Amino acid sequence: MKKIAIVGAAGRQGTCLVNEAVARGYEVTGFVRNAHKIANSKAKTVVKDLFDITADDLKEFDVVIDAFGAWTEKTLPLHITSLQHLCDLLSNTKIRLLVVGGAGSLYVDPAHTVQVMDLDNFPEAFKPLAKNMGAALTELRTRNDVLWTYLSPAADFQADGARTGNILLGGEEYFVNEKGVSAISYADYAIAMIDEIEKADHIQKRFSVIGA
Fold it and tell me: Which residues form the NAD(P)-binding domain (predicted)?
């Protein structure tokens, strides 16, 4: 049975990942900043700031999921530095690192020169977040010493959506379903993430997922 560590396990996406992994029978440990925030009693809890996590803390795990999120102007650069920290801890190990990514860095052209966040209709309010997450991905691509996987969600990422199990996988480019929609719930996103743990189809690659 694989042992999975989830960093940021108390957040809404982290919670969905914990629940999905536990439901599939994995041994799950959530790293959180508040001991009372993990609702799933079948998951273990470690109270520790992400930047205080050490290589010793992670050495017994098979997979680390990075579900860290930052939303304020002051904390947005932490998307880059937090991922750097986790990569350094897992460097030259067999421990996989799966990253909860963003949709803004998906490409909209075959040449991969234009990203979703470059489009005129991309909301200005989300551009700083998209740029920081995109920069983190760019640096992640240079880490040949880490078994990383980056999963981008649909453009409409729905925290409170239902778990349907109806998902479509894509690659580096933005895509839509038969209805012309790019949307997915946090719960369905969690399915794709845990599926990737089981299948290991995207080592040192970025892929994407939307609702069917």
Answer: 8-196
Cα end-to-end span (Å), the chain: 30
Do strands 63-66 and 3-7 pair parallel, antiparallel, or not at all (unpaired)? parallel
Residues 6+ apart with CB under 8 A from 47: 32, 33, 34, 35
48-64: b or e for each residue (b if 16 or more CB lie within 10 Å)?
eebeebeeebbeebebb
Query: What is the number of structural domains in the chain?
Result: 1
User: Where in the sequence is the domain holding 138, given as residue range(s)?
Assistant: 3-211
CB < 8 Å & 24+ apart, contacts of 66-72: 66/7, 66/8, 66/97, 66/98, 66/99, 66/100, 67/6, 67/7, 67/8, 67/9, 67/11, 67/13, 67/14, 67/17, 67/100, 68/7, 68/8, 68/100, 69/8, 69/11, 69/13, 69/100, 70/132, 71/129
Q: What is the pLDDT of residues 83-102, one digit of tens each?
A: 999 999 999 999 999 999 99
Q: How do residues 34-66 score in pLDDT, each as one tens digit?
A: 877 888 999 999 999 999 999 999 999 999 999
Apex 163 CA angle, 206 and 7, nearest 5: 50
How long a stretch of residues is the chain?
Answer: 212
Query: Which tokens hold the place of 185?
Result: 């719930």
Q: What is the pTM of this model?
A: 0.96
CATH number, domain with residue 92? 3.40.50.720
User: Cα-flanking dihedrals φ and ψ of residue 194, to 5°?
Assistant: -70, -35
